[in-house]
Amino acid sequence: MFYRVAAAVAALAFSAPALAQEAPKPITVSGSAAIVSDYRFRGVSQSDRALAVQAGLTVSHESGLYVGTWASNLSGWGTFGGSNTELDIYGGYKMPIGGVTVDVGLTWYMYPGGADKTDFAEPYVKLSGTVGPVSLLAGVAYAPKQESLGRWYLSGASYATGVPDAPGAKSDNLYVWTDASAAIPNTPVTLKAHVGYSDGNAGLGPNGTSVAPTGKYADWMLGADVAVGPVVLGVAYVDTDISNKEALYLQPNFSQTKNGSSIAGAAVVVSGTVAF
């Protein structure tokens, strides 16, 4: 997600005033468009550490049901067998329980134009609420065993031969995370943070990638957003605990195409988002 956290914060910043002025409607449509200096999905660059353009749209019903879509351009590692686009479709149900909102849904990750066996489904459960001035969210996403997530190749060298070590292999993937954000009173600034942990395929899938490079790793983000008129400008420090030594066996797949540098190392990501 660069983090879809940024888009979510931006959406909250702009939707709240509108909701205060208008009567609730049975169906609402919301969305956002953003430009980010690097698309980081769970800490790993999906745009070859380069610019990405992203947009999303969500249709929500007053019952709590919602459906939506989100898209971004890709490059390098994130192309998943040749696609230069990620297109996600998601749907779910939100329900308030006490002071907590429970969100249960499923995301279908698609890579139009990519090789076979790129798409995968991932159900999720999220809990969100507030503690004083801080908004908190905790989530668990679990993708059941699928060929697109399987460890077909044990290493980058193996993938280069074009002969799978375990053709047809299936793997699952677990991701747990927590987000926090807090607006600084009497300012247009919102502070934000994210910590996540992945557990999945330690090798390479049928298209030479993995949703969880090295199998198990942590990612984190610290940043701030500033509302400037209709635009939210963001800056975030993003990193993982994947070392160059740990990822060596995944090379040359798991590296920037321009110079072979890490695509999971520390980076400062800047963004501009417009929400509606």
Note down, in words, how this protein is organized.
Helices cover 9% and strands 50% of the residues. It has 276 residues and is mainly beta. It has a single domain, classed as Porin (Beta Barrel), CATH 2.40.160. The chain has a twelve-stranded antiparallel beta barrel. The protein has a two-stranded antiparallel ribbon with strand order 2-3. The two termini are 19 Å apart. Mean pLDDT is 92; it is low at 9-20.
Number of helices: 2
Q: Tell me the domain tally.
A: 1
Shape: globular
User: How much helix is in the residues?
Assistant: under 10%
What is the CATH fold-level name? Porin
Helix vs. strand class: mainly beta
End-to-end CA span: 19 Å
Number of strands: 14
Global mean pLDDT: 92
SSE inventory with pairings:
Layout: H1 4-21, E1 27-36, E2 40-41, E3 44-45, E4 52-61, E5 65-73, E6 85-97, E7 100-110, E8 120-131, E9 134-146, H2 156-161, E10 171-183, E11 189-199, E12 216-228, E13 231-240, E14 267-275
Characterize this entry briefly.
With 276 residues, this protein is mainly beta.
Keywords:
276 residues; mainly beta; Porin; twelve-stranded antiparallel beta barrel; two-stranded antiparallel sheet; 14 strands; 9% helix; globular
